[in-house]
Specification:
With 441 residues, the chain is of the alpha/beta class. The chain contains 13 helices and 12 strands. Helix 3 packs across helix 4 and helix 9 packs parallel to helix 10. The longest helix has 25 residues.
């Protein structure tokens, strides 16, 4: 049996606002006054009022203290209040869609032992929110957090207790012309870069955006000028600086297999920045949507073409079988393949049974491949000198099967890596058909 378990794991807490209100009476004064006779059956007993800035600070501090193991956490009341769900979704998308495949490749193709995963947070802000959320997500995560604003730096230092200092390194940016991407020591490997850039170039652009976005009065917001505005082009200009620096950083060993990402607040900027990345000959360019009350987008790019991102979407392909049943059927079928050069691994995840990785060194399910084997036309020979590095078994293919937890009848097949077989559409489509065939044998 060639079934393994990945050590890749994310700890995403389930945040319950009602629980917090009931546990901490001080939050009840921030709830809306409702007419008991007008309430519908099933309505929450407390309706938290997010429209007031002070209320936003209160609930955010409580969430971090309760769910993210920072009991003394506080926010600077003259700085932006981060939206936890938005930030958590950003990190979760990067981890699940970009990093998961790299972790599988590293552990099961390169046979590397798990080590520290360093993440760079450009412009971490006074809240230090991405590092604090990221430490909870994965116990191997460590952060290099940069900041230029002196007031924010002072507040960050007040948050960094001895435990946080072990996993968060604060890098002070001295001036506006210094590099945005810090270059760590040679023994540090950066897994990915995150950034929540200033969205606007000036107040006029902010007002124009708000006019288009809101049909009613938006929630109160407190911020400093440097948090909202970047006068040299707003978020487009800021992210272009990151792109330019990433081209240089990608040539260093510290940034091999690194994903560079940034959150974007204005949809029209995605195409502008993707065009800029293309002009710089960047190999992989992808976008993801963060959809809550206010939509945000993630722009991600990488200078390697071995590992491709995955997306948690279900195809229209249906099956009455679960991922666990597919795993058993695949293993039984692969074990019956007598060719000594064929290699495979099936990789599941502890605590979940809705996804499976498949690693093979040949597209053994393709009809033409089976025909070549049957007709002895494969260039593997019969002598002991021939090995699995021969032309027919020199592939490195990683697929991921994902079954939507909300619709167990649907599953998706994505190609994470395909070395020496570039037609990923053929791989994924043929593998779906292959699964259905062996399930009904």
């Amino acid at each position: 049996m060639t079934i393994y378990t990945s050590n890749f794991h994310l700890d995403v807490p389930s945040i319950d606002i009602q629980h917090l209100i009931e546990k901490y009476p001080r939050l009840r004064s921030n709830c809306k006054t409702t007419n008991a006779y007008g309430k519908r059956k099933g309505d929450a007993p407390f309706q938290y009022d997010f429209t007031k800035a002070s209320n936003q600070y209160d609930i955010t501090e409580t969430i971090v203290q309760e769910y993210f193991n920072v009991p003394q956490y506080s926010l600077h009341r003259n700085k932006l209040c981060p939206r936890i769900n938005n930030r958590m979704e950003y990190l979760s998308i990067v981890e699940n869609c970009l990093m998961e495949g790299i972790e599988i490749y590293s552990q099961f193709k390169e046979n590397k032992e798990p080590n520290d995963r360093w993440i760079v947070d450009i412009g971490t802000g006074s809240s230090l929110i991405y590092p604090i959320l990221g430490l909870k997500l994965n116990e191997r995560n460590k952060f290099i957090a940069t900041e230029i604003n002196r007031t924010s730096i002072a507040h960050i230092n007040s948050l960094l207790n001895d435990e946080l200092k072990k996993r968060i390194k604060l890098v002070v940016i001295e001036d506006n012309v210094s590099n945005l991407i810090p270059i760590p020591k040679e023994d540090v490997h950066v897994s990915y870069v995150v950034c929540n850039p200033p969205f606007y170039k000036d107040e006029n652009e902010l007002k124009s955006s708000e006019t288009k976005k809101f049909t009613k009065k938006p929630n109160e917001m407190v911020s400093e000028h440097s948090e909202l505005y970047y006068e040299d082009g707003g978020e487009v200009g800021f992210v272009k600086r990151i792109i330019d620096e990433s081209i240089i950083a990608s040539q260093l060993p510290q940034f091999q297999f690194c994903w560079f990402t940034s959150q974007l607040g204005i949809y029209d900027h995605i195409s502008i920045l993707k065009e800029y990345l293309t002009s710089k000959s960047v190999i992989q360019i992808h976008e993801f949507r963060i959809q809550f009350k206010t939509s945000r987008w993630i722009l991600a790019w990488s200078f390697q073409d071995i590992i491709h991102p995955v997306r948690f979407t279900s195809s229209k392909k249906t099956t009455s079988s679960t991922i666990s049943q597919i795993e058993i059927a695949l293993n039984q079928h692969f074990e019956q393949i007598e060719n000594p050069h064929f290699r495979y691994k099936l990789i599941g995840f502890a605590g979940t049974n809705n996804k499976l990785y498949v690693i093979v060194n040949e597209v053994i399910w393709l009809r033409r491949v089976r025909r070549m084997l049957a007709d002895n036309k494969a260039m593997i020979g019969t002598s002991s000198e021939r090995t699995s590095t021969s032309p027919m078994f020199n592939k490195s293919i990683i697929l991921r099967l994902y079954q939507d937890s909300y619709s167990s009848a649907k599953y998706n097949v994505e190609v994470v890596s395909s070395v020496n077989f570039p037609d990923i559409v053929t791989i994924s489509n043929s593998f779906r058909s292959f699964i259905n065939t062996i399930l009904h044998q």
